[in-house]
Amino acid sequence: MFENATKQLRETVEAALPELNTVVGWRAGYDPLHMTPVFIKNAGDLSKLEWSPFCVQNLSGYLVKDPAVRAQDPSKKIGICVKGCDSRSLVALIQEKFIERNQIHVFGIPCRGTVDWRRVMKLGPLTGIQSARVEESRLVVEDANGGHTFALEDVLARKCLRCAHPNPVIHDVLIGEPVTPRVAVENSYGEVERMEEQSLEDRLGFWKKELDKCLRCYACRNACPLCVCQDRCIAETREPRWLTQRVGTSEKFLFHFIHALHLAGRCTECGECERACPMEIPVTLIKEKLNKITLELMSYEAGMDPEAVPPLLTFNPGETGL
Amino acid sequence: MEHIHTLSIQNTYDADFIKRVEEASGQQVSKCYQCGNCSASCNYTYVYDYPVNQIMRLIQLGQREIVLKSRSIWLCASCQACTTRCPCNIEVSHVMESLRIMSREEKMVSLKDIQLFYDEFLRSVKTFGRVFETGLLPVFNMKAKRPFGDMDLAPLVLKKGKLHLLPSRIKGRKEVAGIFERLEAFHKKHEA
Amino acid sequence: MSGSNSVPVTEQGMKIVGFLCNWCSYGGADTAGVCRFKQPTDLRIIRIPCTGRMDPLFAAKSLIYGADGVLVSGCHPRDCHYAVGNLYARRRLEVLKHFLPFMGIDPRRFHYTWVSASEGQLWQRVVTDFSEQIHQLGPNPGIGAESEIFEKLGN
Amino acid sequence: MRIGVFVCQCGTNIAGTVDTQEVARRAGNLPDVAYATSYMYTCSEPGQQEIQRAIREKNLQGVVVAACSPRMHEPTFRRAVERAGLNRFMFEMANIREHVSWINNDREANTRKAAELVEMAVAKLRFNQPLFSSQISVNKRVMVIGGGVAGIQAALDCSDGGLDVVLVERKSSIGGKMAQLDKTFPTVDCSSCILGPKMVDVVQKDNITLHAASEVESISGYVGNFTVEVRKKATYVDWTACTGCGACIEKCPSRKVPDVFNENLANARAINIPFPQAIPKKATINRDYCLHFTKGKCGTCQKVCPTGAVNYEMQDEIVTEQVGAIIVATGYDLFDASVYGEYGGGRYADVISGIQYERILSASGPFGGHIKRPSDGKEPKDIVFIACVGSRDASVGRPYCSGVCCMYIAKQAILTRDHLPDTRVWVFYMDIRAPGKNYDEFVRRAQEEYGVQYIRGRVGKVYPKGDRMVVQGNDTLLGVQVEVEADLVVLATGIEASAGARELAEKLRISYDQYGFYMESHPKLRPVETNTAGVYLAGVCQGPKDIPSSVAMGSAAAAKVQALFSRDTIETNPQVALVNERVCISCGKCIQVCPFGAIQWKELRGGIRKAEVLPSVCQGCGLCNATCPPKAIQLQHATDNQILAEVNALCA
Amino acid sequence: MKRIAYYQGCSLEGLASEYDISTRAVCDALGIELIEIPDWNCCGSSPAHSADPLLSSALAGRNLAIAEAEGCDVVMTPCPGCLKSLKGALETCHDPQQCDAFREILGMPFEGRIRAISVLELLYKDVGVDALRAQVQKPYADQVIVPYYGCLLTRPPKFADFDDPENPVSMDRLLEAVGVTVPDFPYKTECCGATYGVTRNDIVGKLTGRILDMALRVGAEAVAVACPLCQQNLDLRQAQVNRHMNRTFDLPVVYITQVIGIALGIAPKELGLDKLFVNADFLLRSAREEEPQAKTIG
Predict the structure, then answer these.
(1) Cα E289 from chain centre
(2) Which of B168, D360, D652, E197 is the most exposed place for a label (fewest CB within 10 A)?
(3) Between D and E, how many residue pairs show a Cβ–Cβ distance under 8 A?
(4) Residue D607's pLDDT is what?
(5) Which portions of chain D are predicted below pLDDT 70?
(6) Touching check for C61 and chain A: CB below 8 Å?
């Protein structure tokens, strides 16, 4: 079923390519469960372009972080392939004027969910994967030991199971038919709510255990399309010096507070931080909580409206609920 | 009321009394700056031994006995005029009510008739669940040793068919009596 | 703490960090002092120009590194010396207040409020109530077993 | 860094509850502290000399003084260290008086707290940098907002000092409340006789520009260079042509217009000059009553005007004024007596307010100075004054004393007995507040010489009985309820903040208290300054006061402005934001949030842009600093590192 | 239309029975369904307040609990004294410091969701002056009646939360809506002597005498009331007042519900007009038939 979508994507990109600097998309990675970003500059590269539930990466960060992408011919737009969640990152970057809407050409792809390879590997240790495909509600993988079938629900990424915006909120062209969201946004915070039901001590215990695993490798930050500071991140600077290099739980807490609070009212829950974490710390959950707070307090959902101002960059004098 | 000639304030000053009045009424008595508006507004000032503002002043000075033995606190009708007009936001009427309760507790009630009427009233409630007007009055009059009080009204009331000869007893009498009993138990428990 | 301290934390009282805007609340605290309004001794005030200067991370850092309480106070909304600083702060601090318990930090350890330079009495009440609350909560259990030996930052 | 710590004993103010020697001893152990001592009065001349001596002898690079609030003496000590050759920003204060010694008596806890505050100050000082001011030019024009007696005095004093003055008045004439008064206490001299000449002076001074019927629309800029937009409201009369002849008023057919100047005790016309001595003496049309505007069919005034000044098409006009300082003298309003339902103000014609009675007494008032009661014009035989209506009453949100009512009651009582010797005057009061030169004597005279009856007690209720009013009160001195029947009841309404005070304060960025009165910079030592540099206060807008105090404050504000303008330039505050361009990620969030428009883009080579602060516009709030994700923009003297140093001193 | 719990209270069972029947008749005519609280008990009145606030709250609380169990969210009582007790019970119930003791003594389930209002509040706020005016069948022509509110209906303001405490106007407006002429009455809220009828009727004599005297001075033909105790003092005790004051008052004292009832076309007997001690037939005397959409007066 995804062969058609890939074909349609390639055709659409091909049609638009002459007007574009480059198109950021996905291509096959080192095994069939993994995809990797690709920069399509000419029609010859088009055959590399793929779309499948393994296209987990949010590519929007490349528009602001990758110097190669940024240093383009300014007279031409940059093309980018986005899923629903990815498109919200684009909106957030447009709001904050890191990219201009008229400088990009958005290939939007409605998405039924992406596969979290870690969940696959946990269900059945696979070796020498030869093929992987999604059929209806199943994931079928062939490896050295033969075929394996998994229920899709068991292998979809956590963020996809609670996805309220599967369809790109902005796009210049849409590939495929819009998808019905799994949940309304108000109902998408089940995991946060389960945490909230725990006692304060249990929550502290949970985060102490989880965050103590943190290596301060900053992979989460580097993966985040909205962590725009990058090497000027105050977790690493001396001027000012918010954190020392000491390896303590407090430092780890503070780093994740910095990361999370800098994303408060901005994070679009693309899940890249969590995916990038080598220690499998549920770091997106922290931002989900902040988003739930901004939704409840200020009725704001990040990355939906390019014209909106993120709630912590503005105020409302009449606000009395706070 | 006896006229106060000289008050040796320290001899009769009772700081604990001030505290208890404030706790019972939830009002800060020291807020009173003696403007006198409560007394100006009180329709009962003329029968009081101490006008309300003086009651407030006596509380400020910790004069427990004078206050709790005063007639004023029992002649207050809780009409709320003082509370409504107090510029210091003191619920004066509430203070008076707390003083009545304290005066009962400390057996200093000056106007026994009023207490008697109240007691008979509550006894009627405890027994029947409702107040039995017709029965209440003669009992009160007898106990208060004023057998002919309000007897002039009886023929009038009778003529209008408003005099019931039997009390209206409610089914939940036990429930009502239970409230009285639980209240008593509650206070015993807390005293102990 | 400096090396001169050897008294255990509980006897020392609580460690409450106050972030007060220079124009209203710092003045309110001064007014309370001028009026000799008695207050608990746990609070240590850091003067900031405006609550708009208040990065919620200052509060987060204090609590993560063992402050027993953090109190932020500024001008009343619409009364900011810089017009709107406190209105930004209100949103940011409210978000923090809701966020702290999710991470396992008792939100009662964090309070933000508005006290004007004239409100000495209000300031006394704010400090007294918050200090009492912190005493009831007891010392901040802190983040981790490792959080005992710290080299002092900036040394 | 070599740091010196000076712990002030402030006599016993600090030493009484803080072991200052111990604080100094502990400070001596802190890193970089080269010298620590305790001193009796650090702010005194010898105290300052001691600091300067230590700076020289110990070769200090930074100084911490632990003493009173920095809001009190930080400038003093900054000057002191500067005189000894240090940059004044290499100085920190620890507030161990207002925040320690005065608020708790526990010596041990206080000493520990003081030591920690010193530790925090030292920690911060280690990150301090020398900062330097720059000079900005001063526009030596001053705006006075409000043309009551305080504003007039301020304007005239500034004008006498040779300054250009812009006076803005909301009403169509200056004069304020004082113009409505008949006489003034305690001298009983005629109000308009003493105010009138000053009002005339205002128009005769060449260097005063008067905008009457005007309001401040917006204010931008900063000390030395404010830009104020003034809305000149449409009066529908061209004031350059109007001669104030009054022909239009005489012919105006709309005759049932409430006469606001006479407190609605009389009727005015739809085109009107509020009172004969009005300045400017120019007519104004009241749109709500003018038949041309309401019915669209009258044009009488336009026809009769000999100079053709009437212009029905007139629109509001915005004029922009550039000034270097602003004096706010916006005055007050009187409490609305109808809030007290029990007194019947607003319901009963013969229950009136003090200012209404003032108009009745006035020879230019509605009854030509004859005391009559409004309901039937009868001469009252008994008049009751009720004090503290809207004063000292927490239940109506006015717990403060208005300060003038006791005196104006005494004045009105004396005038009443003067006009009508047979009329009895009764005053219900709680306390007499008469502190002032000849004030208490004046109140005594009312009682001793004029036979005014004073009854101590608040009034409970006023109600009609026949054609008289019954005042039900209480004589607390006797302990009995009293009743007085009166033909006229005067409610001595108190002072409250002007209705637009809060709105204007927000435009000026000055603070106000919970009642709407403007906050002075220091209740004793900086009574006419506000916390916004270049904005000064005069008169009742700051709090209730009488005419002499208002006038004095007007003069004081004028003196402050002249001191400010005595130099051609003023120093900027170097405590402003500064961008580290290497760290700036060009996200523009600082530009987005800055309340003052003090940050702009700066184009670098290669099309890269970075944020840049305009130091003369920056007010130093630090909102940008808190907002900047990589903290590339730092508020000088309150940098992240400085605040973190204080936090770390406590929590690390 | 509306389903409202009805708490009549002891007075309305005895001396104020006409207040009860006229309240029921008027509500019926206005389409308000009253659910009498089954097996209600006395609220304890002032004697309970003066004995123990918890007693008062618990006695009143039982009635509220029953009403809540009947599924009502509003309870209406014509008696301001009872209303004070009911509201007091709700306040105690919601006071964190007292609610546990209150529940313990009450001894039955009660959530405290219910709201307590007077019949006056029901007519003035829930029905409304305009709606009432529209339903008038027999408007009054020239009767002059003063409204007498007494102490508790509007006081203390924070607690009563109804009308102006010093110059209430709800009864004025309702009377005007049915065509009555209402003069300014300065003694609207002066106390009538309250419960001292029994123990100190000299006090009632003086205070009630003042009120009746003022009513006559402003030209009233009758006094309208909304409190059984006020009515008792002004009407039943009018002869006692005359004795104490050496006067000859003969002033009808009518319940507001009776005045409104007549105008709504309800028969005088169904309003208990004959139960009043001072004859109030003047209400009928000049009441005249008019078109239902009669013009408004006043």
Answers:
(1) 27
(2) B168
(3) 19
(4) 79
(5) none
(6) yes
Same domain? A169 vs A295: no
What range does the domain containing A56 cover?
2-115+162-174
- CA distance to partner chain D, nearest, from residue B143 (Å): 34
Chosen for mutation from D402, D462, D476 (greatest number of chain B CBs closer than 10 Å) is: D476
Residues of D in contact with E165 (CB under 8 A): 341
pLDDT at C10 over 70: no
Average pLDDT across each block of 10 residues of chain E; the chain has 298 residues. List them in order. 84 91 95 93 90 93 94 94 94 89 91 92 95 94 93 89 93 96 94 84 91 95 95 92 90 96 95 94 69 44
**Which of E277, E270, E275 lies closest to E233, judged by CA?**
E277
| pLDDT bucket at C2, cuts 50 / 70 / 90 | very low
Average pLDDT (A55-74) is: 80
User: Hey, of B71, B85, B122, which one would you mutate to test binding to chain E, going by the most E CBs within 10 A of its CB?
Assistant: B122
Note which residues in 567-626 of chain D have CB less than 8 A from chain A. 580, 583, 585, 587-589, 592-593
Q: Give the model's pLDDT for residue A68.
A: 63
B contact chains, 3+ CB pairs < 8 A: D, E
Measured between alpha carbons, how far is residue E282 from residues E145, E182, E235, E250 in Å? Answer: 11, 16, 15, 12
Element (H, E) at E208: helix E201-217
Q: How many CB pairs under 8 A join B and E?
A: 162
Of C61, C77, C94, which has the smallest distance from its Cβ to A254's Cβ?
A: C61
- As a whole number of angstroms, the distance between CA B86 and CA C68 comes to 43
Q: What is the distance between the alpha carbons of residues B80 and B38, in angstroms, rounded to a whole number?
A: 9
Higher pLDDT residue, A316 or E57?
Answer: E57
CB contact under 8 A, C57 and A257: yes
pLDDT of residue D376: 96
A117-146 average pLDDT score: 89
Domain ranges of chain C: 16-142
- Report pLDDT for A70: 63
**Which chain E residue has its CA at the smallest distance from D469's CA?**
E186
Q: Are D452 and D413 in contact (CB under 8 A)?
A: yes
Average pLDDT (C81-96) is 92
Q: Is the C-alpha dihedral spanning E240, E246, E250, E252 positive or negative?
A: negative
Please tell me whether the overall predicted TM-score, pTM, comes out greater than 0.90 for this model.
Answer: no
Closest by CA position to D279, among listed D234, D244, D235, D321: D244
Nearest-CB residue to D644 (from A242, A262, A313): A242
Query: Are the Cβ atoms of D589 and A313 closer than 8 angstroms?
Result: yes
Domain E2-120 has CATH 2.40.50.140: no
pLDDT, position E199: 80
Question: Within 13 Å, how many C-alpha atoms sit on residue D222's CB side?
Answer: 19
- Kindly report the average pLDDT of chain C as a whole number: 86
Do both A245 and A167 map to the same domain? no
Question: Amino acid letter at E117?
Answer: I
C-contacting residues in D 22-41 (Cβ below 8 Å): 26, 29-31
Q: How far D175 CA sits from the closest chain C CA (Å)?
A: 30
B37 touches B84 (CB < 8 A) = no
Alpha helices in chain C (DSSP H): 25-34, 56-64, 85-99, 120-137
Quote the distance between the C-alpha of residue D224 and its chain's center: 20
For the residues B161-186, what does the mean pLDDT come to?
85
CATH 3.30.70 fits C16-142, yes or no: no
What is the average pLDDT score of chain B?
89
Contact criterion met (CB below 8 Å) for C105 and C67: no
| Other C-beta atoms lying within 10 Å of the C-beta of residue D328 | 29
D652 to chain A: closest CA residue: A250
In chain A, which residues have their Cβ closer than 8 Å to the Cβ of D583? Answer: 232, 237, 239
